[in-house]
Design brief:
The structure is a single chain. The chain is an all-alpha fold. The chain has 2 helices and no strands. The chain has a single domain, classed as F1F0 ATP synthase subunit C (F1FO ATP Synthase, Up-down Bundle), CATH 1.20.20. The longest helix is centred in the N-terminal third of the chain and has 37 residues. The chain is elongated and about 60 Å long.
């Protein structure tokens, strides 16, 4: 196998696998937050603030995967 082909496969796997976890995490997080808001509408602002903070942390993991895949591809 050529080195360029191995780099492309590694890059694809890094971003592909690295994006699965945050995608699932954000989906579950938003679903549970909407359930909580449905049960207790008075706590919407607190739930929404915590949900956005959790989404930011999950998205940071996806950005790390993107950085790793770019490093593998170009270095």
């Amino acid at each position: 196998m050529d080195e360029a082909a191995a780099r492309l496969i590694a890059t694809s796997l890094a971003i592909g696998i690295g994006g699965i976890g945050p995608g699932l995490g954000i989906g579950i997080l938003v679903g549970k937050a909407l359930e909580a808001i449905g049960r207790n509408p008075e706590a919407t602002s607190t739930i929404q603030t915590n949900m956005i903070l959790g989404m930011a942390f999950a998205e940071a993991i996806a950005i790390y995967a993107l950085v790793v895949s770019l490093i593998v591809k170009f270095v």
